[in-house]
Amino acid sequence: MKIKNISHVFFDLDHTLWDFDKNSALAFQNIFSNRKIDLNLADFLKVYQPINFEYWERYRKDEVTKKALRYGRLKDSFDSLKYTVTDDLIDELAVDYVDLLPANNHLLDGGKDILDYLNKTYQLHIITNGFEEVQHKKLKNAGISDYFSTVTTSEEAGVKKPHPKIFETALNKSAARPENSLMIGDNYEADCTGAKTCGIKSIFFDYYANREKIDVIQIKTLNELKTYL
User: Fold this and answer.
1) What is the model's pLDDT at position 209?
2) According to the model, what pLDDT value does residue 176 have?
3) Which residues contact 16 (CB under 8 A, 6 or more apart)?
4) Average pLDDT over the chain, rounded to whole?
5) Which CATH code is given to the segment(s) 20-103?
6) Is 110 left (phi over 0), alpha (psi -120 to 50) or beta?
7) Alpha carbon separation from 180 to 17, 101, 166 (Å, rounded)
8) Beta partners for 124?
9) CA 63, CA 44: separation in Å to the nearest integer?
10) Domain boundaries in the chain?
11) Which residues on neighbouring strands pair with residue 158, listed in sequence order?
């Protein structure tokens, strides 16, 4: 069933269009090779991914700074594996990671196809809690920056999703009205609850297949958007 009266579609980026897990793994693969880190990559990622998720949740709630996130997620991961790394090296690895992460450009399955499909009918936009300097590189390197009329980051807005101000900033930039807008993202609280606060409809992308019991449309693949748009 199509959602009516939509002119503007706002996407989250990481875990919604951009394949963060795959691109992150490739970045660490390069780092471990270049820096001679003697750890099994799969073992590291198994520990790192939930730690990184937790740090991003804390960052979203303003419980940690950007600097603390970049350092802490690595420090805690290495500590969990009982692998000794100096603070200076962790700082260097944090810089390496931010430099290498946007160099990889894998999208989630159906990402390019759905953008081609939607771009014919809707104005497309990005709203992301990711870092300003990194997110624009991701879009450019993945070859999808031209699809989006506007890109709004939390650093630009001064607040993070689900704060209403970041959605209001995006609406103002795009000259979009809430009642004609739709938000699509993988974080129910940040993307869907935040959008609802501003009167914006939303679709939850169940990236981790958790089958949440929530009051919004859920999709498991990007291609399912064609059912609603």
Assistant:
1) 82
2) 98
3) 108, 184, 185, 186, 205, 207
4) 96
5) 1.10.150.240
6) left
7) 22, 34, 17
8) 9, 148
9) 25
10) 8-18+107-228, 20-103
11) none
Asked whether the domain spanning 20-103 has the same topology as the one spanning 8-18+107-228, the reply is: no
The pLDDT-based confidence of 211 (bands split at 50, 70, 90) is: confident
Give the chain's largest Cα–Cα span. 56
The per-residue pLDDT for 124 is 98
List all residues 6 or more positions away from 220 whose beta carbon is below 8 Å from its beta carbon: 205, 206, 209
Residues 189 and 145: their CA atoms lie apart, in Å, by 26
Is 84 exposed, middle or buried (CB count within 10 Å of its CB: 0-12, 13-18, 19+)?
A: exposed
Cα 94 to Cα 69: distance, rounded to the nearest angstrom = 10
Angle at 155 between CA 73 and CA 146, to 5 degrees: 105
* 8-18+107-228 maps to CATH 3.40.50.1100: no
Fill in the amino acid letter for 43. D
* DSSP H or E stretch at residue 43: helix 41-60
Alpha helices in 61-122 (DSSP H): 66-80, 87-100, 111-119
Q: Over the stretch 104-154, which tens digit does the pLDDT of each residue have?
A: 999 999 999 999 999 999 999 999 999 898 999 999 999 999 999 999 999
